[in-house]
Amino acid sequence: xxxxxxxxxxxxxxxxxxxxxSSPARAKGLTQAEYAANDALGLAELMRGGAVSPLEVLEAxxxxxxxxxxxxxxxxxxxxxxxxxxxxxxxxxxxxxxVPMLLKDLGISFKNTITSNGSVFFRDAVAxxxxxxxxxxxxxxxxxxxxTASPEFGQTATTESRLWGMTRNPWSREHSAxxxxxxxxxxxAAGILxxxxxxxxGGSIRIPxxxxxxxxxxxxxxxxxxxxxxxxxxxxxSIMHAxxxxxxxxxxxxxxxxxxxxxxxxxxxxxDASFLAGHRRPPPKLRIALxxxxxxxxxxxxxxxxxxxxxxxxxESLGHAVEPAAPKLPVQDMFGAMGxxxxxxxxxxxxxxxxxxxxxxxxxxxxxxxxxxxxxARKRSAEDxxxxxxxxxxxGEILDDFLSRYDMVLSxxxxxxxxxxxxxxxDQPYDKFVPPAMNASPFTALWNMGGHPAMSVPxxxxxxxxxxxxxxxxxxGDEMMLLRLAAQLETAAPWANRRPSL
Length: 502
Prior knowledge:
- The protein is of the alpha+beta class.
- Helices cover 38% and strands 15% of the residues.
- It has 17 helices and 17 strands.
- The strands form 5 sheets. The chain has an 8-stranded mixed β-sheet, sandwiched between helices.
- Helix 12 (331-357) crosses helix 13 (368-378).
- The two termini are 29 Å apart.
- Mean pLDDT is 93; it is low at 1-27.
């Protein structure tokens, strides 16, 4: 009883959670229930105190992955032996000493392991170095034991690929977990681990966080390094961070991941306090702009509107002022520019792989939607790319001006609830893909264009028990204010005890 009391009182989120296993599997001294009761910082505290060992925690994560992954298909590359070998070299140090971590299988390098980018063209692409972020994670004590699914090159808001198949939403196996960090979100929602690496080039952290009932923060442009060898993803659109269950885990991961690397030029401002320390302070009274109209003039689903209305009422009950307001944006230019930039980014990725393989990419190597984007990218000029980047700067100016009058913008994350699997697949005709794609990221992508931080907060579930997040965005470099508000909302309307039944 003494050990059980310690486990449940030392940073744990909840006890007695329904985990979807008929009887909790035991990994030596740590049960699945005890493992799932803690967020990442809670697990780190248990290991520092000697209640459990890093190997026990790792084996709990592996046990959970082996039990649940056949159902949801979230973990696609397993590095179990590497993670065990890392622990055999000594007890990990740092704030996350020994906490298991999964990397997204897209755009990040973990030496001597494959990063497939969700593509058969990269199915055996082995990294010869660690990314800067991987190095920072490992120095912080995170123990990487695998990689999570992503759609091919992250080019859609679901996680389905020819290479790895469909990743299923733990809340409903017929629905998408979102994308492109859907594998990360599904793994966290299913209790495989409390926090997972993710990236976001148009909503790819916030959309799966919304679909899976989790917290997802997209940092400001330049906050998290992309190197070595490249300084930005998609010329500033994409940024890495994590999907988590608790707000404090996101804050702590931002602390260990942030900061310039050699060659960095865009560096957001930082305050004196760490994000973990500072996020605990309640925010001041905020003036929040409520923005729930579709940028393309299409209808927004009633469930998504209700999610935002519910969040607005909660904010008002906490003393914040909420009023309808939205800036005027050059919508067609914006999304045209985004297509130019994401397509060009994919083109460069393919060109680099062609050099490695000594042959050109063919239509059989990549999925139909991406083949369409690739053909379009080959025809674009340097002027097209330059003007696209200039459009992002203009969007940033408009949003900065708007945020000089408001502290936050509150909006839906997506215009529709989690779609069914297949609707956003890259393996279909382009004309069939476009209509559902227009509902996936009209509220998220503009903050990638402007470079502003934004987050999805899990505050609503539909009558069918599908999660729908609410998005908040704020001024460039002010992740602290987002985290302070998120912590306040987490206290007022806790979500940690809401788990899917698998």
